[in-house]
## 1
Amino acid sequence: MKKADFSADDTRWMRHALALAERAEQEGEVPVGAVLVGPDGQLVAEGWNRNITENDPTAHAEIVALRRAGQALGNYRLTGCTLYVTLEPCAMCSMAMVHARLARVVYGASDPKTGAAGSVFNLLTDSRHNHRLQAEGGLLGEEAGQRLTEYFRRKRAKPGL
């Protein structure tokens, strides 16, 4: 993972992803949101965690956004696109990004347990893959991480304490 100088557009899109994370939480999901932006800087698709709602272990915010983007563009290759996501992608999501040929992923909070953009694994830039993408983390990471921490704290709270 590379530390970056984030642009105003990067911050705007990550704020959009954070709003989607809030929507996920309102629906009883882990608060993770994702926004996919085309090479022209325009919104292509968005997603938020839907695992519980859809009874689908693959319905991570990133996968939902990638699926919607593929449908919107009529192509499974999302060349030149950037994905903004509030949490560092896992191995499943990272490999989907590699297969989709994204140009870049920007994420908020690092995931020290399952992160695959440098925290635990580094799948996005692995030279053994036929495609690598630019990975930049930490954008609004404290805010994104705090949302997740508070969500799990509430979820794990014991009644009557």
## 2
Amino acid sequence: MASIYDFSAQDLFGKCIDFTQFQGKVLLIVNTASQCGFTPQFAGLQALHDAYHEQGLVVIGFPCNQFGKQEPNDGVAIGEFCQRNYGVSFLMMDKIDVNGESVHPIFDWLKTEQGGLFGDNIKWNFTKFLINRHGKVINRYAPITKPAAIAKDIEQALSQDI
């Protein structure tokens, strides 16, 4: 696979989202969980969405239950939780695996493109990947990295022409 545009995934409501629709956009892809110590980062992700969406940023959350079983809910409950508690209006996908035999192809590709400090596997919820307007991964951020700390990188990616 050459870029993020080669993938598709289901959203929380079972609709297939073809990532070709994001060509020319900057993407921030995050594995999320609603019962994690990092869950308050939803507010920061929403703030990034609010600040940069009109300029071409697309924030996409992928719920995952692989770390401490911190995402036990189904799609509808996940969406309701995120909206009710953090005002999330950015795209939330269906729950997936980010590691192991059942890893979603998007995360398999993301990890191959941008390995982590201690190996390629995702270590915990709220690992973030920034993708440029050409569909290439330009950075990976640890779960402890707050969304606001990524703003300058997002601004730089948004300022680059297609």
